[in-house]
Structures are given as C-alpha cells and as structure tokens.
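For practice. Supply one:
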Amino acid sequence: MDNNTHAENHNVNSTSTTISSDNLDQVSVQSNLHPLFLQNIDHPGLVLIYKKLIGKENFGPWKRSISIALSAKNKLGIVNASYKKPEETSSLRAQWDRVNDMVISWILNTVSEEISNVMDFVTSAQEVWEELHDQLSSVNGHRVYQVLKDLYALEQSDKPVKIYYHKLKNLWDEYAALEMVILCKCGCICGNHKLQEEREQRKKLLQFLMGLNNSYSTSRGQILNVPFIFNFTSLFLG
C-alpha cells in the first residue's frame, strides 16, 4: 500500500486552517501557517493533552483529543502525510526532521509507558500514528456495550440540568468516536445525509427528555407537541 493510500485510510478530520504542500512555496517556515513552524515554547516534553492512551478501550476519545491538539498546532499534515517529507537535498529537510521528532515526542507523551515502549525505534510521526491506529482502532465491543448501557440508564436525578446534559453529551460523543462513521461517496444530492442527521438529533432530544425529572413534565409535554426542534439544547441550557 502506498503512502497516499495509507494516509487516506488513517485520515484525520480537521477544521483548522492548513495549506497544501503545493501551495507552501510562498509561505515562510517562520509563519504559523506553515506545518514546519515551531513556537519558542515548543519542546519535546510538551504534553498536548492530559488524556492518556491506555489501550483499545479509550483509543477513540484519545484520538479525537490528540487530533484536535495537533490541529491547533498545525501539525496534522505531519502525521497524515498531507505535508510530504522533503527530499534530502531540500533546504527544509533539517527543519522537517526536527518537527517530525517533536511530533513523535508529543504523541508518545500522551500514551501509556507500556504502549510507548514498543515505539522506541519508529522514526516518523506518520508511522507512529499508523501503528497506533492499526493496533488499537478496532471497535471494543465491551466498551460500546457499556457506553450504550450508561446512555439508556442515565437520568437527571439530583443533578442540575446542565450537568445532566453534559454527561449525556459525553456519552454520545464517546459512542460516536467508537463507532465507524459511514460516509456517502456517490456524490448524491438527494439530501439523505441531512435527513439522517435530523433523525439522529430527534433521537437525542427524546433521550434527553426521557431522563428529565418529573418537575419538567409540563415543559416536556410542550416540547413534544412541537413538530420538531433541531437545536434542542437552547431550550434548557440557553
């Protein structure tokens, strides 16, 4: 499998501002828009997130957190190979090597010692990323089961509504990270994706309402009489 295919299989979604390799010629490496830019405060011991990767059971949430952190640092191009390794003769090669080593350190700083010990001789951040993905990304059925069980059992009880909602949202987010997202690749324009998203939001709304205390029964009844409210969080948390 070539690097481009492998990188695609391990693609990391990001909303950060990035520039493709083809358009970087006009951007100075001293600019924070360049993937090889390093701040004065950057160092190998930097801990980007405090969520430690311990195994398959928390790979999904860990991957999401470290991806966000690397995106904020504009370093996703290093791990997913969207920014290519410069040739040996390139003036940027030394800087790429430095940034690559830095990113390896940042990633390994957030994994358990047991996992990091087997990565001692991996020489590129992309290889570290792919190795972790290959070893730990398989869906943990026991964890999916537990998350769904916790979701269906969660009720407001004596918790404030905001705390109840955020506990519920954390479980939704973890379940989404554990389960593979199936994307439409046929280029259809039927709007099915939007309908599916609305259906998912409707299901979350009903789950949220079911767990509320009886003191909200009047509000719950009023909401259920409305055909559909997409942004339901503003009803109680706005």
Residues 108 and 116 are 6 Å apart (CA to CA).
